[in-house]
Amino acid sequence: MKDTSSPMTERPADDAVVRCTGLARTFGSGRAATVALHRVSCTVPPGARIALSGPSGSGKSTLLHLLAGLDEPTAGEISWSGLGGPPHGRPGTVGLVFQGPSLLPDLDVRENVALPLILGGTPEQTALRAAGDVLRRLQAADLAAKLPEELSGGQAQRAAVARVLAGRPALILADEPTGQLDHQTGDRVITVLLNAADELGAALVISTHDPAVLDRFTERWTMRDGTLIAAPGPGKGAPS
Q1: Which residues of 105-139 are buried (b: 16+ CB within 10 A; e: fewer)?
Q2: Are strands 18-27 and 203-207 parallel, antiparallel or unpaired?
Q3: Rounded distance, CA 31 to CA 103, Å?
Q4: I need a surface site. Which of 85, 125, 159, 195 has the fewest CB within 10 A?
Q5: Tens place of pLDDT for every residue, the chain, 240 residues?
């Protein structure tokens, strides 16, 4: 079988936030099996700003879920050694922003933002203060006491971003975070993500269909039929 893996932004192993080698992911078995990823290899370096594009069903979400440690590959290896995490299992320094609604309906925004910290062992009052601080930095303090049902799509996504940032991740992953937003609101969400990544010194990988979002990233990857393809952005040379 032909090896379709692509060396993406390859760097020395000690200079990688996350490194994947020959990842494959198949859902189901037998005739019902669906191959979502085909032997994908990639490296996310510190401080990366990567936009991942491709049609629906090309494997973007599957790859992001593997990078986040929310799913396990059928074959291949993934390591977060650059984050100080274990070679297997999700490290706590990865944050994922989902495309759709992800806030718990019975909690207000501040409680939603604080929840991952509380579940991670942070005392409740400390977590709530941290959540309030993040919301203020994102100019969303006015949302703190609102329930998710009271939020617009853009406000809900900003709250979801705040929840991720409260954990101060070293790697931020965002799966089509503007897919359900109008252009202006989506642009603000991308600005929030970029600014937050700068503030935290975090790597940022975002999947998107939006050409306007792609234009804001200097490094672009493309997925097609479960295969990762290199595509240098403006000012970038071809990947080695």
Answers
A1: eeebbbbbbbbbbbeeebeeeebbebbbebbeebe
A2: unpaired
A3: 36
A4: 125
A5: 334 444 344 433 456 888 899 999 999 888 888 889 999 999 999 899 999 998 888 999 999 999 988 888 999 998 887 676 554 445 568 888 887 778 999 999 999 999 989 988 899 999 999 999 989 888 889 999 999 999 988 888 889 889 988 888 889 999 988 887 888 888 888 998 998 899 889 999 999 988 899 999 989 999 999 999 864 444 343 333
Name the residue with tokens 């200079």: 15
Q: Which fold does the domain 13-232 belong to in CATH?
A: Rossmann fold (3.40.50)
Domain residue spans in the chain?
13-232
Beta-sheet strand order (sheet of 219-224): 94-97, 171-175, 203-207, 49-53, 219-224, 227-232
